[in-house]
Amino acid sequence: LLAPTPAQRSAGRIDSRTEPRLLGSQGGSRALKETLPAAKILDLFAVALSHEKFADAASALVTELAQRFGCSQVSIGFLRQRDVTITAISHVTDFREQQTLVSQIAGAMDECIDQGVTVQFPPLAGAKPQITQFHGSLSKRQGGAAICSVPIARAGMPRGVLTFERADGYLTGPTLAQIEHVVALIGPLLILRRER
Predict the structure, then answer these.
(1) R_g over Cα of the chain
(2) Is the pLDDT confidence value at 80 over 80?
(3) Of 26, 45, 57, 149, whose CB is crowded by the most CB atoms within 10 A?
(4) Position with higher pLDDT, 160 vs 44
(5) What is the mean pLDDT of residues 136-154?
(6) How far is Cα 85 from Cα 169, in angstroms, rounded to an integer?
(7) Nearest to residue 162, comparing CAs of 121, 123, 106?
């Protein structure tokens, strides 16, 4: 869990020669200090395992993540061939009729997968430049909400994305570190559940 994760994607994989990241964009010890207590992480694991069907588990998990991080909406999607397909959106049972919104969320997720790192809009002060066209469009549609997408990876390869929307402003550095920590821990379980 303490091993650095790669920072950029190159030639269809995340390139291990680039700057390492330790459980998030905050780096080293700071990210570790700002992680969630083990009991809360276990609660999230329990939610992810508490439903027989993966779609139901994914829906319950994104709703739980939205509540825990004070987000107006959290979405999860997975790579299918070259594009991301949305699996669940918090607080929404049937999102098929909201195709414009689903398309914009998927576009933001693709943007995250293409860069292989967490993408946030609007960016935090001093953050490295990122491509945020779809994140910006989604933010505008959602009334100026802060948008943050975190890749779900296994064996150094991005397999999916969790996108967090917060209506009341930025996701701060400590909150972002916690989100990345949760995704790093629970992501592989979600991938395995989906495949099975």
Answers:
(1) 15
(2) yes
(3) 149
(4) 160
(5) 93
(6) 27
(7) 106
Assess contact for 51 and 44: CB atoms under 8 A.
no
b/e code 110-125 from CB counts within 10 Å (16+ = b)? bbbbebbbbbbbeeee
- pLDDT given at position 49: 86
Q: Model confidence over 129-138: pLDDT tens digits?
A: 999 999 999 9
CA pair distance 108, 73, nearest whole angstrom:
14
Is 35 within 8 Å of 181 (Cβ atoms)? yes
| pTM for this entry | 0.79
Any alpha helices (H) in 50-165, and if so which ranges? 54-68, 99-115, 133-141
d(CA 43, CA 143): 31
40, two tokens: 């809360």
